[in-house]
Predict the structure of Putative deoxyribonuclease YcfH.
Amino acid sequence: MCNSSGGPSGSVPGAYAALNRPDAGARGWPPAPEPLPVPVMDNHTHLDFPADAGVVPAAQALDAAAAVGVRGAVQVGTDLESSRRTVELVEQEPRLLGAVAIHPNDAPDLAVAGTLEAALAEIEQLARHPRVRAVGETGLDYFRTGPEGLERQQYSFRRHIDIAKRTGTALQIHDRDAHQDVVRILREEGAPEKVVFHCFSGDAELARTCNDSGWYMSFAGTVTFRNAAYLREALAVADPSLMLVETDAPFLTPHPWRGRPNASYLVPATVRSMAAELDRDLAALCTDLAANTERVYGTW
């Protein structure tokens, strides 16, 4: 039986409560969930991205996460500025590892401006930092990029795959409305040893493809959304040895706080939802998630 009792139980962590406006109401930071019985890691967060109320310093954000059983995180860059900031953060904070890349939505504009190659060259240098363990988030996003930009997006994705293989890092994939082309390009280029579908957005068919290929599926707060039955169907068939958990903070806050800002301290809400959906013991699931994370990124 699933041992996943618990839910919203605490006050808003101090570092976040200080940012809540007096009139924040349903828009403010959610309360802290009950701590997890076994610590896990947040596989994807953006500590440098401001929520509506502002940015919480990394050390305070990680203190709040640790208080509920989230002992570390992967800080992710999406352009040169945030990738450089990621390297600064992982040098300052031992509870962080890093990922660096040019986001697929930005690649077409850089290509048109003639600066994509220089940006990719710098990403490769940043990816060689010993505490940067992934190239990402890269991939394809057909939701925001029109047909005229798809070829440039795909070119950038192929280059990031090559960088990940040459630097010996994991590949963190952003895949929005592009499942078939993501899989096709991974197969054409030859996937790196460790591939993570960040904020897994596929259905059971894509989950089976990941199972067969040994690709990791990182589930975010979206798996808790009432309109995301397809994600729960994917979760049900996903190989437990390939499951990860993330926030993508400050975005994709899990139910029942959807629409409010997200942070690593809210990982337990997603993990509990996963355990309930899988009818798994919560501690056992946490143990698997932590072990899977370290297989991908190494030790903190």
Notes: The first helix runs from residue 14 to 17. The two ends are 32 Å apart (CA to CA). The chain has one domain: 38-297. The mean pLDDT is 94.
